[in-house]
Amino acid sequence: MAPEIGTDLERAAAHLRAGELVAIPTETVYGLGANAFDAAACLTIFETKRRPAFDPLIVHVRSRAAALELCHDVPREAHALMERFWPGPLTLVLPKRAAIPDIVTSGLDTVALRQPAHPLTAKLLEALEFPLAAPSANLFGRTSPTTAAHVAEQLETGVAYILDGGACSVGVESTILGWEAGACVLYRPGGAPLEAIEELVGRVSPAQRRILPAAPGMLAAHYAPRTPLELGDLNALLAQHAHERVAVLAFERARPAFASRVLSRSGDLAEAARNLFAALRELDASGAERILAEPAPEQGLGRAINDRLRRAAAARTGS
Ligand code: AMP
Ligand code: MG
Question: Which of 24, 30, 70, 93 to mutate to test the pocket of ligand 1 (most atoms within 8 A of CB)?
């Protein structure tokens, strides 16, 4: 049965208290939430998304104080980052306390924590007695949802309720940071720009530790539309695929094609990020044989956009 969509916070809370799944709006993308203290409820997140058990979930908290109850040995930089970026699109990976079940962290001794900024989900977290484990509310490996309707499209069963908070204001997942040998490292570029983070904590290195013991191609291929996607210089790609029915995902300037979307006509990276996943879905549904996309400038939110596009393109040659 298709999940019901609405804005009833009490209803959402009741389902979550009963160990059921509720899709929640956040400023990044929609999440598929469960009581983070309830291992059985969290297991159903993996089943519903068809997500492999080795891919850990992010735990969403109502406040910094609530986050600090779930972790220990918090570096000074992490406190500063929470103060500056929370609530907001930044996730911090920190040593976990026992209250978080192992299934949430895929057996890791660290937990990913974030305080989301969306007002509806902030209110929901205030009302609940527990934090919410929530990965993106899509099938594993597929395009992330930025509206309630996107969630309903992909997750037809297993979701008790979809809390409708409108279109996501950031539109790409959170930036994920952690600490390795005392140094701050980047696990995933996202909604909090690296430049602003580095202004606060100094240089952030690429992560050395691999989180997922994944098969080759598994990690690389993600966020994928069903239609093959190629990323590169649009003029060259258009020439190369001149005899195909192609859809074009342009950053700033439209090109004639069977179907096309422009992420931001003014070249604004925040607007482009906001439009990215919905544009990918629309082009995927256009009936084109192939999606041709160009990268955004590699700065600010452009890093997150390009990361998602590279993974969407990798799905073609990957698994
Ligand atoms: P999603 O919410 O679907 O965007 O996925 C959450 C992502 O957070 C995972 O795929 C991991 O990359 C990352 N993550 C969650 N927990 C941890 C952790 N303990 N250590 C490192 N990365 C994590
Ligand atoms: Mg995801």
Answer: 93
Q: Which CATH class for the 229-317 domain?
A: alpha beta
**Binding site membership of 108 for ligand 1 (Cβ less than 6 Å):** yes
pLDDT for res 53: 92
Q: Say yes or no to pLDDT of 318 above 60.
A: no
45 lines ligand 1 (CB under 6 A): no
Task: Answer with the residue of higher pLDDT: 216 or 280.
Answer: 280
**114 CA to middle of ligand 1, Å?**
11
Instruction: Assign domain 5-206 to its CATH architecture.
Output: Alpha-Beta Complex (3.90)
- The edge-to-edge listing of strands for the beta sheet with 58-60 is 4-6, 161-163, 22-24, 31-35, 132-133, 58-60, 110-114, 90-95, 175-180, 183-188, 205-206
Residue 211, pLDDT score: 60
Q: Quick check: 181 and 200 in contact, CB under 8 A?
A: no
Residues of the chain with CATH 3.90.870.10: 5-206
List of residues 6+ apart from 236 with CB closer than 8 A? none
Domain with CATH 3.40.50.11030 in the chain: 229-317
Rounded Cα gap, residues 160 and 12, in angstroms: 8
Helix (H, G, I), strand (E, B) or coil at 180: strand
Rg (CA), the chain: 19
Q: What is the pTM of this model?
A: 0.94
Mean residue pLDDT across the chain: 94
Compute, in angstroms, the gap from residue 130 CA to the centroid of ligand 1.
19
Residues bordering ligand 2, an ion, CB closer than 5 Å: 136
